[in-house]
Amino acid sequence: MDSFYRAFEDRYRGSRELIKSRLAQYAPFFQPLATLYPGAKTFDLGCGRGEWLELMSEAGFDSTGADLDADMLEACRERNLPAIQADAIEHLASLESNSCALISAFHVVEHISFEQLQSVVSEASRVLRPGGLLIFETPNPENIGVATNDFYHDPTHQKPIPSLLLSFVVEHGGFDTVKTVRLQESPALRSPDHAVRLLDVIRGVSPDYAVIAQKAADPDIKERFAQAFATDYGLSLGQLADRYEARTDSARLLMEKIEARIQRMDERLQLVEVEERQVAEGRLQIVEERHRHAEVEQRQVAEGRLQLVEERHRHVEVEQRQEAEARLQLAEERHLHAEELRQRAESQLRDAEARAQHAEAQAQQANALLHAVQHSTSWRVSAPVRIVGAPLRRLTSAISERRLLSGTKRRIKTVLSAGAITLTKRPALKRVALRLVKLSPTLDRRLRTIVTSSAGNAVSSSQSQRELSQSAREVLEELRATVRASESR
């Protein structure tokens, strides 16, 4: 159980630093005592891990503590604190009278019986020096959360002790001045401006309290502690309840004011609704009248537009009918004209067919005549003349119209040269050609013009004559001679 309780204390009581900072709140009480009795002895019942012993040593006291839990005392030995393993109540009874300036018991009285509590009070009154202090700290059952839940976390607790009972026990034990000090409440709740909630009433009361009792002493000694004993500490259930009620009353008043405002607003709203309904009804009546007026105007406008549309429609129908009749008349006239053209075309077609038949008969006659001519002796004899005749006719036409160009002239020379060569190679053809020239005055004139032009060009261009062969030049000279002979006659 020793190791269990130390582990339990470490987890739920708090660290050494936290507990030591909480115990420092007793400074207004023990500092004047350290000045009054410098180096005086103090005794701590159930010293535990030694946080109070360490604080007393730092304040200049000769402190001693006692505890039955060896594992808890190990923490004291680790820091060389003066603590013994013993029954603290029995050790207190063994101390000399008027030997100590301060006797303390932090979270001890809830572990012992009421008879043991009374014994501790009696022995402390004996052992303390005049003006010495007795400090009992214990969980505060005035805190509803502590009384109903937190107190029973420690399995060694017997029952919670109300502050009125503990302070009465101390007073009854002979102590002259007794002060209840409430401890470890939330700093935020200390502010009177903090809004107290219901949960604050349940758990916000100071979770611990201490009864600090002073042994009778001369007035000058007690004067040193007057300020500490006159100060109020912590928060009681009544204080938080009053603040909560005040806040509730304020909230109630506020709600009443809000409800009154809401009621006034409802009344105003009803008046406004009546006014708005009247205004709306008047506006609705005006709108309905305007609507009826607008309907009449729209009906009149619609009827006027409809009448105008009907008149336009009748006018359009008349125009369309007239236009359709005109188009129909024009179409009939075009049909008659087309019929006349068709009849004329049929007549022309019949004429064309008759001419075609006549032309076909003439063509058959011409083909028969041509066949007879082509197989006659005169046709074969006049072949050279035909060969030369057609080009000569085109040439003569071109010369008379002055359409000959230099390139054309060169081609004429080439043709004449080719014809001369042909006549040279075929003497019989040559004689026939000359005879035909003499027999035909027209051909004679054309050849004379051609030969004269060719001769002029030949004289001006020696290069062209050099290009002709000897036989071609001879034929050309004969043609020239023939032309000159014709001119002389």
CATH architecture of the domain at 2-235: 3-Layer(aba) Sandwich
In sequence order, what are the helices and strands, one letter per element?
Answer: HHHEHEHEHEHEHHEHHEHHHHHHHHHH
Provide the spatial order of strands within the biggest beta sheet.
Answer: 3-2-1-4-5-7-6
Low-confidence segments, given as residue ranges, are: none
Secondary structure: number of strands: 7
Binned, the helix content reads 55-70%
Radius of gyration: 78 Å
Fold and architecture overview:
The chain is an alpha/beta fold and 489 residues long. Among the domains are: 2-235, Rossmann fold; 383-488. Helices cover 70% and strands 10% of the residues. The protein contains 21 helices and 7 strands. The chain has a 7-stranded mixed sheet, with helices on both faces. Strand 1, helix 4 (51-59) and strand 2 (62-67) form a beta-alpha-beta unit. The longest helix is centred in the middle third of the chain and has 138 residues, at 237-374. The radius of gyration is 78 Å and the shape is elongated. The termini are far apart. The model has no long low-confidence stretch (mean pLDDT 82).
Topology:
Layout (H helix, E strand, L loop, with lengths): L1 H11 L3 H8 L3 H10 L4 E5 L5 H9 L2 E6 L2 H9 L4 E3 L2 H7 L5 E7 L7 H14 E12 L4 H5 L14 H10 L4 E7 L3 H4 L7 H6 L4 E7 L4 H5 L2 H5 L6 H138 L2 H5 L1 H18 L5 H20 L1 H13 L1 H20 L1 H6 L2 H19 L1
Parallel strand pairs: 1-2, 1-4, 2-3, 4-5
Antiparallel strand pairs: 5-7, 6-7
